[in-house]
């Protein structure tokens, strides 16, 4: 009996063993193929990064060598700097550096890209490079030379010693940093040097790339947790402030400090609000729930949002755009002063389309916006008709208003805002009220276009 069983089982086990071996070999081969492919991608990205940083250094030198009156050539050089820096940023993102401190170098590349883009897009004939900007270019040239040399040094060692990027990936994933890993040590050295570039922490380079929100942009005294509870209770109409849970966010090292105040909601989700520590300004409110139906028209949701803003002291706000997602209307409002829409002072209200309940408010831009607008009381140099002449004759204008915007150079500009259609598409175009420059062109959706044909809803006085 056992002999018969063995005669049957032996071929079966042998076949299973052979099958397991074949499967294991196939899996190992596929694993090796994936590893080789990843290594090739890493190597290509690294060598391209070294090449483009070296080209960036060369292009900065070429730009500095240009005569200061050659505006078109200057612009071409700065555009090339921006293009090369963007390519280098893309290659950094392809390398396994997520667990390696390389943020200073990434920030450096980002700042160079933004500086060169902002400088190249302005009218250099009217606003030529300043002495400070030329000094910044010279400093960037010297620093890019040093970074190029360090990356070339790492590249030579990688080639000479046949080093593998997969070893870097495995070491970082395992939270191991072997002392003899040339690639890791080389990139740490580069990032440490870039972090010590103190000469780029002042002047136009910093002004064009500074953080968007800081405590210095806020007014008023600092508040404590007790005051946060009082303000949250007043906002929601709650009689007992003690029922709120308050958590402090950040410390002195962050851009600004805030408090998160929460309260259990009726639908199982917490009602949450964020207040700035300095000034006690509400920057975020959320009362989430599932919205299963869409019963309201856009105009009705806009009216609900406008009444909510009025009740909570946001005066003179006008709806400028909206979008709908999962039966919720996200309505953007900006402050209007006389006949000018002030876009930097904007916020977003989330309205449930089943019953018009307000589910959220995002007011960070509004809270941190500059309130001292130099141009707001002035009439644009160009009239509406003169500004219109700078647009395409084929554009069919549906609405016009004056608008204060922040352009690509981070400057406030008083503009004529036109909304019109061309070739079946609707556009919002901002024309500089001083010189007729088209500061911004935005494509807007059909629903926004229909609403734009109406005059903005302005509330309060």
Give a structural overview.
The protein has 12 helices and 12 strands. It is α+β, with helices and mostly antiparallel strands. The protein has 3 domains: 179 residues, no CATH class; 144 residues, no CATH class; 69 residues, no CATH class. The longest helix has 63 residues. The C terminus is likely disordered.
Overall number of strands: 12
In round numbers, the mean pLDDT is 79
**What order do the helices and strands follow?**
HHHHHHHHEEEEHEEEEHHEEEEH
User: How many separate domains make up the residues?
Assistant: 3
- Classification by helices and strands: alpha+beta
Give unreliable regions as ranges. 206-211, 455-461
**If helices are DSSP runs of H or I spanning 4 or more residues, what is the number of helices?**
12
Strand content: 15-25%
Rounded to an integer in angstroms, the radius of gyration calculated over CA atoms is 30 Å
Largest sheet: 12 strands, mixed
Shape: globular
Report helical residue fraction: 40-55%
The N- to C-terminal Cα distance equals: 101 Å
Short description:
Helices cover 45% and strands 21% of the residues.
For the structure shown, list the relevant keywords.
single chain, 461 residues, alpha+beta, 3 domains, twelve-stranded mixed sheet, 12 helices, 12 strands, disordered C terminus
Task: Lay out the secondary structure.
Layout (H helix, E strand, L loop, with lengths): L1 H63 L6 H24 L8 H18 L10 H31 L3 H9 L8 H14 L8 H4 L17 H12 L8 E5 L8 E7 L5 E7 L5 E5 L11 H14 L5 E9 L2 E10 L2 E13 L5 E5 L1 H5 L15 H5 L7 E11 L5 E11 L2 E8 L5 E7 L1 H7 L9
Parallel strand pairs: 7-9
Antiparallel strand pairs: 1-2, 2-3, 3-4, 4-8, 5-6, 6-7, 7-8, 9-10, 10-11, 11-12
Helix pairs in contact: 1-2, 1-4, 2-3, 3-6, 4-6
């Amino acid at each position: 009996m056992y002999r018969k069983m063995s005669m049957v089982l032996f071929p079966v086990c042998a076949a299973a063993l052979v099958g397991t071996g074949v499967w294991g070999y196939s899996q190992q081969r596929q694993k090796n193929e994936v590893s080789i492919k990843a290594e090739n991608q890493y190597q290509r990205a690294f060598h391209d990064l070294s090449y483009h940083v070296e080209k960036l250094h060369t292009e900065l030198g070429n730009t500095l060598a240009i005569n200061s009156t050659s505006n078109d050539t200057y612009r071409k050089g700065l555009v090339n700097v921006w293009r090369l820096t963007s390519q280098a940023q893309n290659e950094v993102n392809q390398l396994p550096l997520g667990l390696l401190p390389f943020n200073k170098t990434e920030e450096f590349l980002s700042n160079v890209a933004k500086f060169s883009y902002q400088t190249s897009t302005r009218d250099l004939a009217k606003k030529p490079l300043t002495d400070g900007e030329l000094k910044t270019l010279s400093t960037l040239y010297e620093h890019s030379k040093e970074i190029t040399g360090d990356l070339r040094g790492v590249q030579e060692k990688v080639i000479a010693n046949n080093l593998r990027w997969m070893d870097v990936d495995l070491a970082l994933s395992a939270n191991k940093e072997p002392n003899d890993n040339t690639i890791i040590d080389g990139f740490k050295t580069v990032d440490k040097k870039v972090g010590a570039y103190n000469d780029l922490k002042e002047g136009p380079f910093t002004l064009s790339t500074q953080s968007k929100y800081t405590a210095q942009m806020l007014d008023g005294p600092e508040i404590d947790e007790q005051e946060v509870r009082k303000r949250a209770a007043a906002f929601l109409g709650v009689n007992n402030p003690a029922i709120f849970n308050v958590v402090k966010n950040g410390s002195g090292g962050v851009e600004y400090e805030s408090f998160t105040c929460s309260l259990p909601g009726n639908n199982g989700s917490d009602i949450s609000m964020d207040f700035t520590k300095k000034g006690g300004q509400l920057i975020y409110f959320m009362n989430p729930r599932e919205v299963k139906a869409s019963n309201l028209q856009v105009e009705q949701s806009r009216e609900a949002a406008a009444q909510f803003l009025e009740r909570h002291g946001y005066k003179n706000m006008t709806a400028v755009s909206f979008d709908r997602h999962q039966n919720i209307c996200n309505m953007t409002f900006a402050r209007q002063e006389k006949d000018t829409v002030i876009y930097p002072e904007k916020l977003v209200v989330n309205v449930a389309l089943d019953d018009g309940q307000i589910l959220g408010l995002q007011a960070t831009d509004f809270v941190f916006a500059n309130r001292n607008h130099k141009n707001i009381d002035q009439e644009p140099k160009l009239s509406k008709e003169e500004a219109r002449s700078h647009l395409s004759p084929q554009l069919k204008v549906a609405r016009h208003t004056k608008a204060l915007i922040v352009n690509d150079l981070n400057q406030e500009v008083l503009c004529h805002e036109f909304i019109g259609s061309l070739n079946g598409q609707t556009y919002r175009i901002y024309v500089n009220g001083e010189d007729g420059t088209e500061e911004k062109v935005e494509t807007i959706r059909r629903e926004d276009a229909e609403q734009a044909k109406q005059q903005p809803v302005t509330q309060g006085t």
